[in-house]
User: Which sequence fits this backbone?
């Protein structure tokens, strides 16, 4: 069994980005909007900023009150769309309930939409001509490729149909530079075990700790675990630990390769955001 | 075996549209652009116009020279985007080679894009909030539903990953009002027979006459044949006949239901264009 080291691969991608930015003498800028006081969101945004600094991307965090109106938030986005110094714009989700996430996503200039969530970027992806691909699907693709595996003719089974992972990943792997056979499963899928057992590459993006057991995985397959779930652990100071959607210990001796949680898909998501920001700079 | 009668179902949809248009006293208008002298394109456009007339939708065909420049075609589209009388705009494909199909599709106002090919409409579909769905996928969905079958928890296997059928159909059937498990296969798929044999609902959209044989189909499944292929037939005056991607005679005794070619998916495509045109009128 090969452990796919997301930390190492993400570090390599950051190295490549740093080298490219230095060599070309460019100075891309990412602006992140952080609304309210969600502590997890604050951590995510800080991690993104840290990664930007590490590779030479300017970054700015715009902190906005929890009580901000939708209209005022859209006005901030409009100004950033016009700001020539800002190449990439992200809005950390979730947003307070007075604000429509869809309206916010649709307000971002598609050429600065480095999260790839704008419907026109989703559409380019489905049409097989991706511009900005959401970070997690793109990170999954890179993890597999940089571990020495390919997608051509492989049966990829994705469990979970979110707009952030499952569906854009399906579209990405159907593109002609990947050429995978793709199945998307979800909560309504019958005989899920039988479907997942067909997978050469199984992607778990469900949000349920240890959901994928030994009986759901094919011998010699590659397993990508997107889940990040907190479970109680009294042996830890924090009182909890992070586990994936895959029952790692049950599955590990059966598979060709697997990503750990943490240290698998997670670090790739931030790395691919940097890649998209450099791409945005070059497209503008 | 039940023969799914696309002609009858399409006629019923046209009846519903006619009743709705009369009852609401509305007058939607579809404008079709026909570039050059492709005889098949001329037939398609005329059929669409005929269907419009039948239900009370105004229609106009703008005929343009084969030699028209991309710039001039885009200018025509720009005028139609602004024309308040035009609710739906379609450009019959294929286009002459001096013109980029993507640029033309992207030039159409997404609110008038009744073919649903604009990337933003593809993106809304992938995100699970469809506005305009391309006619063929939407027609396939209606065929199945109106024949008394459902998609929830069913495994739908789609053979073919085009932007007009395979990929938008996958996105459509992953939406929460359908809830299918969806697999997309294509020319790079290995062990295709094994994958198609898993299908509760098999959709063939490959463009190869009689490609789907008995050994590829599960007992009691539903088979939707999107292919329209000409094959030589000396017993016909025309010298050819139309067949689908499915070997109908080989498969028919095995399945629960199947669409014929012609008279299956084909007539639905035009009917769903009418549905989209009425929807466009109401959205504007």
Assistant:
């Amino acid at each position: 069994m090969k452990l796919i080291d997301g930390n190492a691969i993400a570090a390599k991608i950051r190295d490549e980005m740093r080298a490219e930015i230095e060599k070309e003498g460019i100075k891309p800028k990412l602006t992140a909007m952080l609304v309210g006081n969600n502590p997890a969101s604050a951590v995510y945004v800080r991690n993104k900023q840290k990664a930007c600094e590490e590779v030479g991307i300017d970054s700015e965090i715009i902190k906005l009150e929890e009580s901000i109106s939708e209209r005022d938030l859209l006005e901030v986005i409009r100004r950033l769309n016009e700001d020539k110094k800002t190449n990439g714009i992200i809005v950390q989700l979730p947003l307070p309930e007075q604000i429509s996430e869809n309206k916010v996503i649709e307000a971002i200039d598609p050429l600065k939409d480095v999260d790839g969530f704008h419907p026109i970027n989703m559409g380019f992806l489905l049409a097989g001509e991706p511009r900005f691909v959401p970070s997690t699907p793109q990170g999954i693709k890179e993890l597999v490729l940089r571990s020495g595996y390919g997608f051509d003719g492989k049966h990829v089974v994705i469990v979970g149909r979110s707009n952030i992972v499952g569906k854009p990943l399906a579209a990405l792997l159907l593109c002609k530079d990947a050429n995978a056979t793709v199945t998307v499963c979800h909560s309504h899928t019958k005989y899920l075990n039988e479907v997942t057992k067909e997978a050469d590459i199984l992607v778990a993006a469900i949000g349920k700790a240890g959901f994928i057991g030994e009986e759901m995985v094919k011998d010699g397959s590659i397993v990508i675990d997107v889940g990040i779930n907190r479970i109680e652990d009294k042996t830890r100071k924090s009182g909890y630990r992070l586990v994936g959607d895959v029952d790692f210990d049950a599955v590990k001796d059966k598979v060709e390769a697997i990503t750990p949680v943490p240290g698998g898909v997670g670090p790739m998501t931030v790395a691919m955001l940097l890649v998209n920001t450099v791409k945005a700079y070059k497209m503008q």
